[in-house]
Amino acid sequence: MTDEMPFTGEPVDSHEAIMRATFYALQEHGYAGLSIQRIADEADLSKSTFYHHFDGKDDLLLSFLSFILEEFDRVFQLETSGDPEADLKTFFGIILGSYDFCEEIPAEEEFLEAYVELRAQAVRNPEYRAKFTETDRRFTERISGLIEEGVEKGVFVDVDPDRTAQFLMATLDGITLQNATRNDDPMPAMRDAIDDYIENRVLAADTE
Length: 208
Hints:
The protein is mainly alpha-helical. It contains nine helices and no strands.
């Protein structure tokens, strides 16, 4: 996708087209109703194209999860400023939808719903469990790295980067689950809670 935001413009190749189609088909049919045929219909590609690259639905969805993680990392790198405070807030803002990019990009609720539905498969499927273990590890390391940088620069108080990152990651998982499984809209209050934690427990007082 070069420097474009995800889900904007035309897909650059069949792989990107398949990943987009997978997301939209998952939104429409859910995991249980998802099939290679339905994803192929969404992408306007033949089933043979899919089976040339993937062994089946779960193999495709695991690839989709990797694609989303890579796109998040790429977008985050595009938006980083070198300021640990701003970058930490950008990290959470991208995931929780308080960081605006482009109207073409699906709303964060849709991404989070897809994430939760696929994560539920990890309860029984060891391949999904391994994928989400790796995803959590990478996200936690990213947060820890930002906090460690902020502590070194005197922007953050002298907290333990790993423990703080683990706490924030667990909070993020809770927000994701709550938002995808409740009838009301808890996201605004949860975004405020994350901001308050960063302001009051992580950010050094003399930086305000």
